[in-house]
Amino acid sequence: MCGVAGIVSPLSTEVVVTQPSPLPDQGAAERLHTSSMGEMVEALRHRGPDGYGTWAAAVGERHIEFGHTRLAILDLSDAAKQPMVDAVSGCVLVYNGEIYNFRELRAELLRDSASQFISSGDTEVILRGYLRWGMSVVRRLRGMFAFAIYDPRVRQLVLARDNFGIKPLYVTEGSGGKFAFASEVRALLSLPWVRRSVDPFGLKGYLAYGSVQEPYTLVSGIRSVPPGHTLTVDVSGDELVVGDPESYWELPEVRSRESKVSVQHLARQIRDGLAESVRLHMISDVPVGVFLSGGIDSSAVIALMAEAAPSEVHALTVSFQEADFDESEIARSVACRYASRHTDIPLTADDLLPLLPEWLESQDQPSADGANAWVISRVCKEAGLTVALSGLGGDELFGGYPTFQRAAMASRAFTTIAMLPNGARRRLAKMIRATWCQSTFVEKLAEWVGSDGSNLSTYLILRAMFLPQACAELLDPWVTSVAPTELHPGVLNKLVKQASASPDTIAAIGRFEMSTYLHNTLLRDSDQMGMAHSLEIRVPFVDRDLANLAAVIPGFIHTKSGPKTLLRAAMGDSLDRAWMNRPKKCFAFPWDHWLRNGLRKEVEPVLMEAGEFPFRPGAVGQYWQRFLQGDKTLNASRMLTLYALVSWIRRHRLEVVQ
Amino acid sequence: MAGGLQQLARCVARALASSAEIRKLGIWGQMDPRSTEPFIERVVQTYAHPGVDLDVRTFGGSRVELSSAIAATSLRGSYDRIMYLLLNQAVLSLLPGHPPYSVWEIGWELMTGPLPWWKCRALRHADVLLSISRNTTAVASLHNPQLPAARVVHLCTEPPLFSKTPLHDPVAAELYDPARRQHSVLIVGNMYRGMLYKGHQQLIAAWPQVVGGCPSAELWIASGGDGQLELEAQARMLPRHVAKKIRFLGYLDQQALHDRYRQCRVFAMPSTGEGFGLVFVEAARYGIPCIGGKYDAVKEIVVHNETGLLVEQHPHDLALACLRLLNDDRLAKRLGNAGRQRYLENFRFCHFRDRLLRALDLDST
């Protein structure tokens, strides 16, 4: 887990700076990089406090350079330092992530006598794998990764991101043949030629769904490389040619024959797959902990960690005074059985208030959803850990969220509503909005009645943060006219294809959740919040091989006897019924209470003063007042979404370019 | 029928009339006034082979009359096959005794969601389903999985109305010399409120960045619609030195459009919903490098980095693409020339005729 950065620019526009390395462990060798690369590396220091490195070269009329900040987890020696250069081909790699099957790949490469390794970690496996297999190496990698390789033999720069986008990778292009990439938006914002202007598409998607929807970011011109894609930049010709992202992996389609297999057999497969994933995710040369919330997913992870290495399980839990949110009693029971050590940190609004500015500062892109990950990452780091496992991804893969059941119910209900002509449905929707007591439920009900009732439309309404009418009330009309949609056309096409290929509603919702909420909110928050504390968060549920196993099973089997039927069956012999059968609670904070009380003095001035572009004057302040007055259409999540956004825009001084 | 559909109808009629296998060709225009019948006949005659019997009828907007005529045809067996250009009309295929028919996948409704059951049926039961692009048929099938694959027949520029296409297209490639053209980007596309998908707003939003890299660059916006006022308001909100570089030209007649094509340096319409994008064929005919969108049918006309640039419908990407073509004469000329060559090899009437007749399993020689 580290930070990566790279720049391609015309030689004439950059001043090359040679300077001795400031860090003692870099030795006395001079490092060659531009001041721009220096700024980028500095911006990524939190991702890799264990060292940094740069590389640069002139290629024809261009200058190419890489930067890397290191968080040492595998092979802590200097042999694994980056940027890593192959002495024979001249290929250069910068990489952020973990390859969990690196030992297997290394063995395969060693069978080819041309492959010589000088390190014992996973970084060199990627480089040697590229030299052996070209970019098809990505299909062999099991793990989380974002990397870039410069290949001087063909004068191409190739970038790659893992199957699910666990690790971030952002790119930007400037006029006059400039290109840059980095692990975080803030690193790209440090470049003088990147315009600090709001991206209306990123903004619209953020308000619509509570998180920035990839590939957009909040900054115009900065995009992410999609998950499961590679990107090639050709620097061989007179013009810099940035290719389109190319897909190398997708979730497999549901196989109807799996419905003939018994639940017990499928559950055994799932358990074996998850156990293997957990075991692989524990590989580390530094101590590994686990986030324990008391839910089924984190409990399953800790139980399987204990099977793999009983003496090495350090569990960490955050507990609350507010009983509705506190799961620490269950967490303690689970820890008692499986953990070798359990750290339980109580948290109140008074504890969180002084930390709020730090939490916001750590957001590379705004989010209302990452405070829990931030707090527990901090706890982990203070406990001396560098790596922690999380139960994130279990709900998406195994049908855990309420969205699954709600969408299935909606699908059945819409067969009746669909008998009405379109015009009549729209009038009914209007009547619902006007007549019934206003609440988020009624708002969404009206929106759904007026929609086409498809699984995709239903899902997007269920997951919406602010519906189109609210977005129009909040945003300056320029934003809504320039950005007519909330989702990127490529993403929307993918979701429509997933809907079309899914034989049942549950399977479709599972795919939507993995492509949107998991990807744009949970995984991003997990990376941002972990990296804010130089902590690597690993997600054994979000694993290519496990997903290949689970995704082919028809959706209705996953929820046959309630949420996560298969996962419960898989872990039934390891987890008490009492742990598994209690209602799901999200690993969340009591924000509504805190916003009205302890956090109000921090949040209110920010929202009341959010009068300027890109918002309509006074709109945000009005929403805050309505929330305080008990308007049922405005909940804590919506207010936090606005708070995080306004804070972020101010902090980064994004300009108005209409 | 309006604009592009009228042009398609004329090209289809002329192509069918040219086939030696067709002995009788009925050309029935639901919306055309009766007075246009001689005009239609004269246009189609330019390509008709000597043996064909033309039956031109117009119904002045009367669906009842058209339906009665088709019912009568079905009963009498006057025609072996019927071809529908519009999906709305194809529902007449539900009439008893209706002969085999083909239908075109045309219309915004195909691109946006599931079709009503009666339209789906009309498409499913067609003997031959025709589509103006691979993208259209792919998107239609995504939203309506029960639809069969359509046969793709890319469109073409229309021949002169009362004569055949000359062997040498009078619009010569050597006319495009970017170094002698004003720094200008032309967009030609309707601006209807609620259907502003062609990229006007995004181009206007890109203009500050474009002017930053090319101070003399002008954006020329041709055509009209009830959304124009909003676009003009958007342009007025830009800094003055940028706003005055954006010019709304209104509807242009053939000659005025021809003049603009011969003056502009770049053609751009970063649409997200073109069923085909005939306007790009027109621009390529003039040798002008084009900027189109990545996600619709335009990619079947414009080849990225070879005959034009295909970009996201986003102000930043549009600005970069415009600046590349405005500031780099060599690139603009290379793409423009290649686009013109692609037009000459793929998008003239002769190519459309061959594609259509092959799709209908008719002899195209």
Structure description:
The complex is a heterodimer of chains A (about 650) and B (about 375). Chain A is α+β, with helices and mostly antiparallel strands and about 650 residues long. Chain A has 29 helices and 20 strands. Chain A has 3 domains: about 250 residues, Aminohydrolase, N-terminal nucleophile (Ntn) domain (Glutamine Phosphoribosylpyrophosphate, subunit 1, domain 1), CATH 3.60.20; about 200 residues, Rossmann fold; about 70 residues, no CATH class. Helices cover about 45% and strands about 15% of the residues of chain A. In chain A, strands 6, 7, 8, 9, 13, 14 and 15 form a 7-stranded antiparallel beta sheet that branches. Chain B has about 375 residues and is of the alpha/beta class. Chain B folds into 2 domains: about 170 residues, Glycogen Phosphorylase B (Rossmann fold, 3-Layer(aba) Sandwich); about 170 residues, Rossmann fold. In chain B, about 40% of the residues lie in helices and about 15% in strands. In chain B, the strands form 3 sheets. A 6-stranded parallel beta sheet of chain B has the order 9-8-7-10-11-12, with helices on both faces. In chain B, strands 3-4-5-6 form a 4-stranded parallel beta sheet. The longest helix of chain B is centred in the C-terminal third of the chain and has 18 residues. Chain B is globular, with a radius of gyration of 22 Å. The interface between A and B is medium-sized, with 26 and 32 residues.
Any descriptors?
heterodimer, A: 658 residues, alpha+beta, Glutamine Phosphoribosylpyrophosphate, subunit 1, domain 1, Rossmann fold, 3 domains, 7-stranded antiparallel sheet, 6-stranded antiparallel sheet, 20 strands, globular, B: 365 residues, alpha/beta, 2 domains, 6-stranded parallel sheet, 4-stranded parallel sheet, 15 helices, 41% helix
Helix amount of chain A: 40-55%
Shape of chain A: globular
The assigned structural class of chain B equals alpha/beta
Are there runs of chain B of 5+ residues with pLDDT below 50, and where? Answer: none
